[in-house]
UniProtKB/TrEMBL annotation, chain A:
<feature type="transmembrane region" description="Helical">
    <location>
        <begin position="93"/>
        <end position="116"/>
    </location>
</feature>
<feature type="transmembrane region" description="Helical">
    <location>
        <begin position="237"/>
        <end position="259"/>
    </location>
</feature>
<feature type="transmembrane region" description="Helical">
    <location>
        <begin position="186"/>
        <end position="204"/>
    </location>
</feature>
<keyword id="KW-1133">Transmembrane helix</keyword>
<feature type="transmembrane region" description="Helical">
    <location>
        <begin position="20"/>
        <end position="41"/>
    </location>
</feature>
<keyword id="KW-0472">Membrane</keyword>
<keyword id="KW-0812">Transmembrane</keyword>
<feature type="transmembrane region" description="Helical">
    <location>
        <begin position="53"/>
        <end position="73"/>
    </location>
</feature>
<feature type="transmembrane region" description="Helical">
    <location>
        <begin position="157"/>
        <end position="179"/>
    </location>
</feature>
TrEMBL record, chain B:
<feature type="domain" description="ABC transporter">
    <location>
        <begin position="6"/>
        <end position="234"/>
    </location>
</feature>
<keyword id="KW-0067">ATP-binding</keyword>
<keyword id="KW-0813">Transport</keyword>
<dbReference type="InterPro" id="IPR003593">
    <property type="entry name" value="AAA+_ATPase"/>
</dbReference>
<dbReference type="GO" id="GO:0016887">
    <property type="term" value="F:ATP hydrolysis activity"/>
</dbReference>
<protein>
    <submittedName>
        <fullName>ABC transporter ATP-binding protein</fullName>
    </submittedName>
</protein>
<dbReference type="InterPro" id="IPR003439">
    <property type="entry name" value="ABC_transporter-like_ATP-bd"/>
</dbReference>
<dbReference type="InterPro" id="IPR017871">
    <property type="entry name" value="ABC_transporter-like_CS"/>
</dbReference>
<keyword id="KW-0547">Nucleotide-binding</keyword>
Length: 265, 307
């Protein structure tokens, strides 16, 4: 399995497309931070927050993350890397795990610009605000910018950002079974993006429904998991990480159940 | 443990109502090149996919190096090298990077094998060229190089000479022979290019509509395709009598179309012709012929050729 993971990471590092996606993510992170800085100064109309959301980590991760998942998994069906792995005796569960690890690493690289921009923004001591569209890293920036922080709080913010990355990886882990079943990147991106919009709508309305709220709180798609700041307790963070890890494991188990007996065309 | 590296026992594969393979039993030994011959849709690729673990049999079993069962087979597949349908590679990587990727996947520590294989398949001078820019022949060569990583003991190649230029065909033929002889590798190779396959294979497996029609060695094929005098006449029964009494041979065969194939007296055409003529038999065809693998294959399928 380690051989497969090493090989997948090697392939990832050689991919020009992945580098382009990370560059897009970096540019989007910069744009969203600049907008978040200009909005409280009154230099940008607050109605521009819709555009701000376009460049947010939540939105970009949904799109770029699904594209990367499609490239890493569906691409390997197209170029027969998965065929070669199976015919040379690799176990199917090892193939699934290696793809999941490669996807997780790619997502970390994709989210790194947002983590850096958020840390840099908080370090300036200036006020950043994106209003109600702030989720994930932008929420951290909105909630904690303009405050002087102690060392312990900096450590906690690092832990929050790490937790957010895990939440995003858990959300995107849905793309693993999708990619293994559908084998076409375009379907993976379309379905995942549609699903994420649906989840956002339902999660928004879940406040009025205790059942819906409970369901969402047990998945990484719940708003609560993406709205973390210094006020979030260590227990809440641990719970979020636990839910995310269980969700990832569930997605991989679903993938294995279907893939272990599937014929590779 | 027997000496067969690959065995299938009554292997069948159905896709819904369609039977792609029916009760296929084959045995492959090291040091032989097996030419898998069949029309499109005959089941060649299905058989190869089952051996490679890309599909699962509906019935029957596979034995690799004397082992069968799901996990032992997965383990033994590490000793296989495959190129099925079209070669698989990452298009944005160079040939060497592709070999490195597959070497890492297989856990082969020897980095030098990358250059050795590139040299072996004639891709050593493609240093910076991405695989997506390769010609069809170069892609085939890369596919073969990938299949050869990890020094497999069994090589499964589906149409490996597709797209190769004449020189490339000869190079690949020589390479396969060399691998077979020096490493005692068992090679299962499918091709529609039967004249080429005839020059490469040591054994033949003829498959038609999912069933094995015949398995034979090169010697058996040569024997069956051997040269003969083809005689067509108005009285075949009388002709056979003449062959036996006048020429003293039983080495002939009456074909379903009532022509007679005489495998003796190939260097005594005049004597044969005179003997037939003297008995008042009217001959309408008198040719020295020899079958090709192509004709033999067609005859096996019940076509116009005779076998």
């Amino acid at each position: 399995m380690l051989n497969l993971i090493r090989a997948d990471l090697f392939k990832l590092m050689k991919s020009q497309a992945v580098k382009v996606l990370i560059a897009i993510s970096a540019a989007s992170a910069m744009i969203s931070a600049v907008m978040a800085y200009l909005i409280p100064l009154g230099k940008i109309d607050t109605r521009m927050t819709g555009i701000e959301f376009m460049f947010s980590d939540m939105n970009m991760t949904c799109i770029l993350g699904a594209v990367i998942a499609g490239m890493i998994i569906c691409g390997d069906f197209e170029n027969k890397t998965i065929h070669n792995a199976i015919s040379s005796g690799s176990r199917r569960y090892a193939i699934i795990i290696s793809k999941a690890v490669a996807l997780a690493v790619a997502l970390m690289l994709l989210l790194l610009p947002y983590a850096i921009v958020t840390a840099a923004g908080l370090g300036t001591g200036d006020k950043f605000d994106v209003g109600s569209v702030g989720i994930g890293f932008l929420h951290v920036l909105t909630a904690e910018s303009g405050n002087v922080m102690e060392i312990a709080e900096i450590g906690k913010l690092a832990a929050i950002m790490l937790t957010l990355i895990i939440v995003y990886i858990a959300q995107l882990s849905l793309c693993v079974p999708l990619a293994f079943f559908l084998k076409k990147p375009v379907f993976v991106v379309a379905i995942y993006y549609g699903f994420s919009i649906l989840c956002a709508q339902l999660a928004g309305g879940s406040e009025s429904s205790s059942v819906l709220s409970r369901i969402f709180s047990l998945t990484p798609y719940g708003n609560k998991h993406a709205l973390m700041a210094l006020e979030t307790t260590a227990g809440d963070m641990a719970r979020t990480i636990g839910i995310s890890v269980i969700f990832i494991a569930f997605m991989l188990a679903v993938t294995f159940t279907a893939f272990r007996k599937s014929e590779i065309k | 443990m027997n000496s067969y590296v690959v065995q299938t026992h009554h292997l069948s594969k159905n896709y819904g109502d369609y039977t792609a393979l029916r009760q296929v039993s084959i045995r492959l030994k090291g040091g032989h090149i097996y030419g898998l011959i069949g029309q499109n849709g005959a089941g060649k690729t299905t058989l190869m996919r089952l051996l490679a673990g890309l599909a699962f049999p509906t019935e029957g079993s596979i034995e690799l190096f004397g082992h069968s069962g799901k996990y032992p087979l997965q383990e033994e597949r590490k000793r296989l090298g495959c190129m099925i349908e079209h070669p698989g590679f990452v298009p944005y990587m160079t040939a060497k990077q592709n070999l490195k990727l597959h070497r890492m996947m297989r856990g082969v520590p020897n980095e030098e094998i990358e250059d050795e294989l590139l040299e072996l398949v004639g891709l050593a001078d493609t240093v910076r060229k991405k695989a997506r820019d390769f010609s069809l022949g170069m892609k085939q060569r890369l596919g073969i190089a990938i299949a050869l990583l990890g020094s497999p003991e069994v090589l499964i190649l589906d149409e490996p000479i597709n797209g190769l230029d004449p020189l490339g065909v000869i190079e690949i033929r020589n390479l396969l022979r060399q691998l077979c002889e020096e490493r005692q590798m068992a090679i299962l190779i499918s091709s529609h290019n039967l004249p080429e396959l005839y020059q490469t294979a040591t054994n033949y497996i003829i498959i038609h509509k999912g069933e094995i029609k015949q398995t034979l060695t090169q010697e058996q094929l040569d024997e069956r395709c051997k040269h003969h005098i083809l005689i067509r006449c108005d009285q075949p029964e009388k002709l056979t009598s003449v062959l036996e009494t006048e020429l003293g041979t039983l080495n002939y065969k009456v074909m379903p179309d009532r022509t007679v194939k005489l495998y003796d007296c190939l260097d005594q055409l005049e004597r044969v012709a005179r003997a037939i003529h003297d008995k008042g038999i009217v001959v309408t065809k008198f040719n020295v012929e020899g079958e090709t693998l192509e004709n033999y294959f067609i005859s096996c399928l019940g076509g116009e050729g005779d076998a």
